[in-house]
Each structure stands twice: as C-alpha cells, then as structure tokens.
Amino acid sequence: MSERLTPETARTVAKGDALPAFDVQVTRADLVRYAGASGDFNPIHWSDRVATGAGLPGVIAHGMLSMALAGRVLTAWTGDPAAVRSYGTRFTRPVVVPDDDEGATVELSGTVAEVREDEGERIAVVDLTARFDGKTVLGRARAEVVLP
C-alpha cells in the first residue's frame, strides 16, 4: 500500500491492507500543550507526586491525546481529516511519560478490517493500534473512512 491514499490507489484498498505505521514521541511539554488546548488540567498529567499517589506508575498522557495520535494514522493515509466518518475506542492502558527530553514512544498502525459500499460511498473500516512499551493502550479502536 502506498504512503498516501489517492483516487487511483483507493480502488484497490482491500481487507487486510496495512496503513503506513509510524512512531510518535510524547513529552511532558506535549502534555502541557494538550492540557491548555483541552482544558484538562488534571494533575495526573503533570505531577509525579499526584500520579503516583493515585496509584499510577507516573505521569500519564491524556487518554484523548492517545486517541488523537492514533487518529493521525488515518489522516496521514487519507490526507483529508474530513474523510474520517466515525472513530471510537476504549482506553485500556496509560502512556507513562517520563520527565526527560525523550518522552514516551507511541507506536501507531492500522489495518483495513472491511471495505463496503454505503449510500453510494466506498467505506474502509480501519482497526487502529497504539502501543506503548509493547502493550496496546487503546481497545477496539475502529474508524470508518470514506474512500475517494
């Protein structure tokens, strides 16, 4: 499969196709920026003392940030955020972000689970995967993408 979906390559999209995978680094600075944008200033996303006091292994990324990062697999593939018709997931494990310059590596990928016709549009159902430290952080991450 090509890196970017085009009208020509969209005709050949089939069940089992892998979307281009990539890694994203998440740093504490990213968490601060996300908190400002989202309004979620819960201290488990910036204070080791509060996070560990709540039973977490350390400061964790916002679940919605992890979801958004996985969604980048779709937009990188389609080149068009408006092509994403629906997207849902469950949060299963946290992304623990250390207080250093490197941060946490989140591995992102996707696989076409189904291609179907719906009201004259060709829809790809994509299963997304976000992994941190070798374990998935999202459960049942699935999206519908309108193919060009």
Number of E-type strands: 6
What is the CATH homology-level superfamily? Hotdog Thioesterase
Low-confidence stretches: none
- As a percent range, the share of strand residues is 35-45%
CATH architectural group = Roll
Helical region count? 4
Task: Report, as a whole number of angstroms, the end-to-end distance.
Answer: 15 Å
Q: What proportion of the residues is helical, as a percent range?
A: 25-40%
Coarse shape: elongated
Whole-angstrom Rg? 17 Å
Look at the helices and sheets and give the structural class.
alpha+beta
CATH topology: Thiol Ester Dehydrase, Chain A
Order of helices and strands: HEHHHEEEEE
In the residues, how many domains can be counted? 1
What value does the average pLDDT take?
Answer: 96
CATH class: Alpha Beta
Sheet having the most strands: 6 strands, antiparallel
SSE blueprint and pairings:
Blueprint: H1 7-10, E1 18-26, H2 28-38, H3 48-53, H4 63-78, E2 84-91, E3 104-118, E4 121-132, E5 135-136, E6 138-146
Antiparallel strand pairs: 1-3, 2-6, 3-4, 4-5, 4-6
Word description of this protein:
This protein has one domain (7-146): Hotdog Thioesterase (Thiol Ester Dehydrase, Chain A, Roll). The chain is built from four helices and six strands; from the N terminus they run αβαααβββββ. It is of the alpha+beta class and 148 residues long. The mean pLDDT is 96. 26% of the residues are buried. The chain has helices at residues 7-10, 28-38, 48-53, 63-78, and strands spanning 18-26, 84-91, 104-118, 121-132, 135-136, 138-146. The radius of gyration is 17 Å and the shape is elongated.
